[in-house]
Amino acid sequence: MWILRKPFLIARKDPGPGLGQFAAMNLSDVWRTALDLKKQYANEAASVASERAERSFAVGDMDGFRVWNRVQHAIVEIEREPKPHEVMH
Questions:
Q1: Count of domains in the chain?
Q2: What does residue 4 show for φ and ψ, rounded to 5 degrees?
Q3: Counting Cβ atoms within 10 Å, is residue 32 exposed (0-12), middle (13-18) or buried (19+)?
Q4: Which end of the chain has fewer beta carbons closer than 10 Å to its terminal beta carbon, N or C?
């Protein structure tokens, strides 16, 4: 059973098998994971997250798939060049 709490926070009562071993993954966890992958794999980080999403999907772990897909999108956002009118913090 899954419980929705805050945006991007999903807690699972019975973790079960699969590559989605995350009991809870909120938005800050997604970004932290993205930054960790970026440090570890540099320019290959998005590919690594995408591969993990594909493996999760292949074994039917849709929750793991969604998490790794979010991480992959966060990495793409980290790597994106800012537009001229955007302010970066």
A1: 1
A2: -90, 130
A3: middle
A4: C
